[in-house]
């Protein structure tokens, strides 16, 4: 088991280093100079040069790369060009929005998808199965930003149940914060729940075809006992992979939803960072997201080992 | 001078509105803004959003703009000018303190002006202070400023947001914790969401009506509309979604404030580009454009057509729209004369704001009518600044110049539309130094006529300032002589 | 083998949109470039079947030409995915366990680790927003999908006897991959192709919604949605029609993918007989 | 932690003596007039079986005869869309009429069942103790503590004692035989009156098979449990069952007490089965004719080639021409690297082939026998140049065979292969023409299309298939026909050596007999050398001149097939021969169906 984790950790570090190199190179080639952007149209060249010096934009690429990476290891992501505050502070503010949103959406999606997927699998071929599969097909096909628009139109503007967006901050009370995240979470969760439901159904069906299910039935277990006792746990393995992938997507992929609901999340921070050429912010946040995704995959592997003894105990 | 276009110029990406706070207490207000300021130091950045939060609220200069654009005294109680107009002696108000309690006196004024004009200064409008030769402190309440040569607009320049008076002790962290002399104090800034200010108890002037105020940042037009409709925002001075104004006009809860800005929206033409160096081609472009169609299509009817680079609300404005009336046949004839009978292709670069993106599509269609094909490429501001503004690698672009009275940019040959007319440059030099109003008006008319007849650019329309506010609010500025949300006069009626 | 209902509906929807795009090359009710501010925001009627937008352009024509953009971008992105991903996957499977295989797999994980949309935004920021850059941005994220699918499929085939027999007949791994492995994973690729195609449509809509997809004057569904967003209260139909088009197109492709998977999968086929 | 070795139970005593005749105990379960159709297609028709308490009934039949579905009908575990008529009466109750909850109370409690594939029959993520105890808990026969105690007892009873097999072990830590023992334990946890065993030992090695069959026997004897044993192997049934039922195409065609089934002239199909299982093709001597009855599910030759083959004289054994040595293997060693233990230490190595040497002459037929995992397939792949050797050398007609970098085409033309799995040996997307002509890739000068068609047609005819078969796809042929096509493919280049890796193992008895005849005939015609790899002694005895017995990578014994099998010298060979179930010789003598006169 330990050796399994050590090798996973090793490959994790390798991919992180590779990721940092790729990100740094992409950022280097972006046209547009942050200093010029900040000083506006008629700033004369020497002021722009002074600001570039001040922001540490000069110096060769390699030394900047190492200072950035070593800084990151110690948690210092450098200071944002436009906000002139440590990037880590900016990121932690935004993380307070993106992380709860991702977890909220994931809980909604999983809580909805697993039971629905199981019911569809157990009642394979019946009308309920066809119905569920139909709605999940629709769920996958709906672009989440369009769904968000419709939600705002219905709940915020006409019914006035929810605010049209924005985020009051957690200090305004946990419930207030949650309420603000509800519509965005629902618009993120619906397509993800559809995907997860379909995968749960096919994973369960695949498991139900296995021999040990027949052995269990031969022992006298009813269909329900067999599913709960034997099928579920085995079907959980592929389902968990998808949940891991979805969480990673929710953390980083909510850029558009954050736009529609104007939430101060990581996605929009990157977006603003790119438009304002606040490149140190973009570099650090993208690196953070890649780190989150890689960690989530690692946790999924650990969970695998916990569930599947074949990985845990080497024969 | 030109700044990044003001808030009212941008349709752009999503911003932030706070959740509806409890039934809006009558002594507080939530102002909607489209762009979040990168930082809160007006002397350190060019972004219009900085001034829209701090100007007249947190920071004050020697003089300041009033609602109608005129200049009136602020920290300088009064001043007198020497005979040759080069020495200004400002008498400061007594008993003025910064928010941190330290007194504000001549030393602070000298520090602020010297810092702005210093060699390594990062002040975006360094040119404002270029004319200053020396700043000397006569006594704690008197400052004498000597100019290299007379400047009729010096007191106006001192009213700019970039010329506010700061203290040496607190300028260090002004970017995130601004300390000024204004009627409001900075309390909190939740990055990406809002800035909160509250009333300064020991303000030197008469106290303001509001207890506190919050600036919410929402750049997405639909989000802005939803926030206003849902009551999350009390007033949105630079409201971006002009197409929804009709609904606010029809709703008794709201009042729509239409004013004008200093933003001349033009089809900038690269006069040095080989196709466009021929005046007949530029004239043909000017005549191909139907200004009213662009105003209706892109700005939904808000905006006044202009024939030259001057703000219509300015008394010296000359209506020259006749010179470039919409006349497609004339355009085709001119193009034929210029040897482009079978048409030509030009590159049209568009910055992010919706006036540019939507206006660009309409202009492209109108030019296509007369045989001019355009390749549209939409750029981010950073790319636009580098490719169009600095490297002049473009044919046509659409941008709104929002600085007050900035016709002097036509006197600078290295400016991005590369117009070099010695006659205009000498006239401009005279205009700059004449103080007498009659003479200035005549000169202004001549200047406007020259650039109109030279068809330097396609002059489209003056950007309107479309604001929406709760019916119960009054004291908001109608026009925007400078980038500001001056809350000093704002109060709830009931 | 009787085709299933999902296969039929999927095929009908997909063919409908493909023909829509095809026809748009020859004829559209109104020319799409022509703006006429005078007739803006007309409700659907006899003249303008689906009404006009804020520039007075006919929504129906915009949808037809928009279909061409969306389908074009999505198909080319899938093409990139298959063109580069499949050979990589086959090669990785051919020398399974070698360093090359390891590098391919690590590379795949790395690309999967990147947040797709953010990278797409970065790419378009670097090279400027355009349909070609959208194709590149979406295509890049198709490569690991197809590499992984084809490697998985090929690995299971390499252990089969007929591949050993081909080796006994003196064929080397490249020829075996082309003659024996590729034809037998073709079904797999076809099904995954339709799924990635539908994801491509959604990605293109997302990109052009934030203004990074195809640029004006070429119409695209995503940008129609973005433009309609501000007028959603005055003319909701402007937002509804492009949204519906996206949903139906993606639904059609997914149903087609599911139908093909059941139709072609021998295991299911045997069950059905 | 290496896999726990097989437990050593006392050497199995061959059932030489006939079991003492049991008092005719009461009738436990009777299947009468049973018809089964699954979504319309008829599967079973008028099946009748009588299972007596404490006795063993063997149900034998070829694949597709419906024997498994009969068992599943008794257990009530039929797939959806199944419709049954008739009755399955047990203790006065008709099981078919019971509703699902009632049937659940019977399954595992009064009737237990074990299945063919032990490797996948247990839930991989739950411990073996847990899965055995579950049977008790489900039926409420014991609380948690008691269930675990009884589970421990049952595991001991099936030969998985405490120290080596704690309750918290997982299925993947056990071998195939041990897992089948766990399945038996969980099936008999509640001492059911009847245990149904569906091909319990087909997937196991010969020696493991013997241990499992003995375990089942002792369970029946000690606990008085009845056993319904389903298999396709006549010898297994003969050595175990009290009564035997023979099924074919969903019907019970023959049923009788074991000792009399073969004595009297029963159903011709039974006799045919017996003959096929004992079949020994007369190498270069007339093969016994196998009547091809119409409508028979078994092999019908496509294209009207007459089933009978012409008889040719010539005695195989005596007049072997002393041809030059075709294949010589000296000191072959093949290692596989296992998972790396430490990060930097060299990975441990498993030696699959350990210093094997032998030679094979042209036209000779050499058998390679041994249990799975003894390295016989690895050796075969090394000979074919598909895998490199770590040491030693292989030469074909004098030129060395080296897998790395690649075997020269000229050398490859002389050796071809036939694999075991008829369904995996062909690319489903190619026509037979392209499949059979694939070896032509080795020719220096590519043949013209017409030449290829001609050679392929000739090759198909020589294996008893019609030339127009080349236009068809492989899924249009049965298992036996596919093996014929595989042989045609191997034959098309006129190789000197043909390697047959378990070529007939997955074929039904009667079809296997025809293929063995075909191979014998082809060897005669084309002076082919065969390297015949199999785990089945009866096949080896039937086809090979000399045999090599392998165990864990080494040759333990080699020599003339008859002498090795009649009087084995090495104890392992003796163990192999004894473990293989055999139909008692005296049964065969009485019926006059003994091995045909030499």
Description:
The complex is a heterotetramer of chains A (315), B (494), C (273) and D (598). Chain A has helices spanning 2-28, 34-39, 45-55, 61-73, 87-122, 127-141, 144-158, 174-208, 211-218, 223-253, 255-260, 266-275, 279-307, 309-312. Chain A is mainly alpha-helical and 315 residues long. Chain A has a domain at 94-266: MetI-like (MetI-like fold, Orthogonal Bundle), CATH 1.10.3720. The N and C termini of chain A lie close together (11 Å). Helix content of chain B is 26%, strand content 23%. In chain B, the strands form five sheets. In chain B, strands 11, 12, 13, 14, 15, 16 and 17 form a seven-stranded mixed β-sheet that branches. A four-stranded mixed β-sheet of chain B has the order 1-10-9-8, with no helix packed on it. Chain B has a four-stranded antiparallel β-sheet with strand order 4-5-7-6, covered by helices on one side. In chain B, a hairpin with a 3-residue loop joins strand 8 (184-190) and strand 9 (194-199). In chain B, helix 7 packs antiparallel against helix 9 and helix 12 runs antiparallel to helix 13. Chain B is globular, with a radius of gyration of 23 Å. The longest helix of chain C has 37 residues, at 173-209. The model of chain C is unreliable at 268-273 (pLDDT under 50). A six-stranded mixed β-sheet of chain D has the order 6-7-8-3-9-10, sandwiched between helices. A six-stranded mixed β-sheet of chain D has the order 16-17-18-13-19-20, with helices on both faces. In chain D, strand 14 and strand 15 form a beta hairpin. Chain D contains 19 helices and 20 strands. Chain D folds into three domains: 5-20 and 29-261, P-loop containing nucleotide triphosphate hydrolases (Rossmann fold), CATH 3.40.50; 286-336 and 350-414 and 495-582, P-loop containing nucleotide triphosphate hydrolases (Rossmann fold); 433-494, no CATH class. The radius of gyration of chain D is 26 Å and the shape is globular. Chains in contact: A-B, A-C, A-D, B-C, C-D. Chains A and C meet through helix 1, helix 6, helix 7, helix 10 and helix 11 of A and helix 3, helix 4, helix 7 and helix 9 of C.
